[in-house]
Amino acid sequence: MLQMEFNRWKNLSEIVPVDVESFVNVYNSRDEVLEDIEKFAVEEKVPILLPSAAALLELLIKLVKPEKILEIGTGIGYSTIVMAKAFPDAEILTVDSNLKRLKVAKEFFKKAGLKNVTVIHSDAFELIEDLLAEGEKFDFIFVDSVKSEYPFFNFKIQALLSERGMAVFDNVLFRGYVCGKSYDEKRYSRTVNLLKLFLNQIKEYPDFSVTLLPLGDGFLILKRKSPERG
Ligand SMILES: C[S@@+](CC[C@H](N)C(=O)[O-])C[C@H]1O[C@@H](n2cnc3c(N)ncnc32)[C@H](O)[C@@H]1O
């Protein structure tokens, strides 16, 4: 199947029926800048967080009210803007290795009038090592990078979470391929196997509660358990 044919290039999920997702997207409010990014993403075929998943991300940020947010995978800045607007008091550190996308993201941040975002052009693995060495902690970490990387920085992400920390990983169901939907094995089996490894790692975490939702491309929420209440 050609990549062009995927619903995701129309900002639609591969795992939620198209009519259902199109229906709910009408109700999930977003401002002009976010709509502009959605249009840009479709025109230029750039991946962004799907709007239905963005609606949940926004709600989580409003509930957690994180002082410090780390985002792995800025892309063109859609999810960054969602988080920055949901809680403008948060300090956001966002990283991407793709300079071309970061340039576009910075333009959108300007348009959105964001003041609380620091953009880092780097490989996420390097930044994570630096942050760990500096003893940095974050109340919220949003991971939206290359799916096959998830099992490799998973434990480090946990180490960066504060006591009340929450981490969200996007794309963990990868168009449903990790749950048995058929796929081009030659092309995708490495990613599918690494995502399965990641999901198995998650099952073994006694310190975190796990919520895995069939939303967007598969949305995983990890919440550090509180010592008293679980
Ligand atoms: C799906 S896009 C991010 C979309 C973005 N969160 C949004 O909603 O607009 C994934 C991004 O992760 C970046 N990325 C992937 N692996 C990375 C790594 N190891 N270090 C830094 N950036 C990485 C890619 O360059 C790409 O721009």
TrEMBL record:
Secretion signal span:
none
Q: What SUPFAM superfamilies does the database record attribute to this sequence?
A: S-adenosyl-L-methionine-dependent methyltransferases (SSF53335)
- E.C. no: 2.1.1.-
InterPro entries from the entry? Cation-dep_OMT, SAM-dependent_MTases_sf, SAM_O-MeTrfase, TrmR_methyltr
Instruction: Spell out the reaction equation it catalyses.
Output: 5-hydroxyuridine(34) in tRNA + S-adenosyl-L-methionine = 5-methoxyuridine(34) in tRNA + S-adenosyl-L-homocysteine + H(+)
Q: Which Gene3D superfamilies match?
A: Vaccinia Virus protein VP39
Protein family per UniProt: Belongs to the class I-like SAM-binding methyltransferase superfamily. Cation-dependent O-methyltransferase family.
Q: Write out the function statement from the record.
A: Catalyzes the methylation of 5-hydroxyuridine (ho5U) to form 5-methoxyuridine (mo5U) at position 34 in tRNAs.
Protein name per the record: tRNA 5-hydroxyuridine methyltransferase
Q: Which gene encodes it?
A: trmR
